[in-house]
# Entry
Amino acid sequence: MRTLGIETSCDETAVAVLESDGAVRFSLISSQAAVHAPYLGVVPELAARHHIEALPRLLAEADHQAGLASVELVAVTRGPGLIGSLLVGTCFAQAYAWGRRLPITGVDHLEAHLVSPFLNLEGRPARPLPERTLSLVVSGGHSSYFRLDAEGARPLNRTRDDAAGEVFDKVAAALGLGYPGGPAVDRLAESGDPQAFAFSVPRIKDPPGSLDFSFSGLKTMVIRTAQELTPLPLADPASPPHAVLDLLASFRRTVIDWLLAPLDELVRRYQPQGVAASGGVAANHELRRRLTAWGWRTGVEVLLPPLSLTTDNAAMIARAGQLRAARGRLDDPLTLRAYPRASWKKTRGQ
Ligand code: KG4
Ligand code: ZN
# Structure
């Protein structure tokens, strides 16, 4: 079914149109980064208000460029995310679907990130999902490996505290690199020595052999080390002292070391045909390089979304919606409800 996707779970307003084979015909993201930057984080009230303003504009552009008359399905993010933002998107999509008598399907945001590595921006159909994929979702809210197969998606580990993207953002905020800070840290880290600083690996003892992540200790160590090197926030964030570049490169290398640490063991246990990564941190250059090199070394196929589909977008929502609709999972436009919290067990079976 030709599908209109709508995403408003956080601070990006996004609209996409996918052909019935999953080819991305149109994908537009309106970022609110500049609105929230002065506050070093997303202000929920402002985010919701900007979604209200942006959605009609993005929809008009989608109609102009891709034509909405032949759309057969509406897919919208139901959760998790900021409830005000989600309500704007779901109410808008519900009204649109009801007004045009179209079927609607409410999509889980995480499930959508999981299908993004199978999309392309060259107009080709979406790739079918292999029988078994091991998939790392790393964003501002999640850091987990999932197994993805005919039974759906199951988390295999989680973070005990901060998500990887959150740690990039908090370190960047302390240094005065703005918000969201992941891209800035990634860019500056390219000029530093990744071996200059070593950080101790957190021990998660319970249960023994746990493959869970923990990043909050690293965040504290990096910010404390930065304070010892130079007064914070940085006087000139565009060109920090060389020692800070080394620190950022070492910090980035450590996050990626830890994210990739469980990979071999999970591959051994699960025997996937492919390993995928998605979510905002999947835009990270070091993660992309190291995962690609791992694929060459092991012969396991590595799937990464195009850069602009790593962070929040509506193409992944539309694709997850198509797959959901193909399983007969449609919602009632009058009763579809948004949910703010990630509740994987609760939402998985819907
Ligand atoms: O998937 P996403 O847009 O939103 C969530 O669902 O959270 O991910 C946003 C996160 C932010 O924490 C941002 O700093 C991080 O992804 N991010 C990066 C990079 N680009 C975005 N982190 C590290 N390196 C990057 N290049
Ligand atoms: Zn996301």
Remarks:
- Residues 10, 139-141, 165, 168-169, 180-183, 186, 279-281, 283-284, 311-312 surround KG4 (ligand 1) (CB under 6 Å).
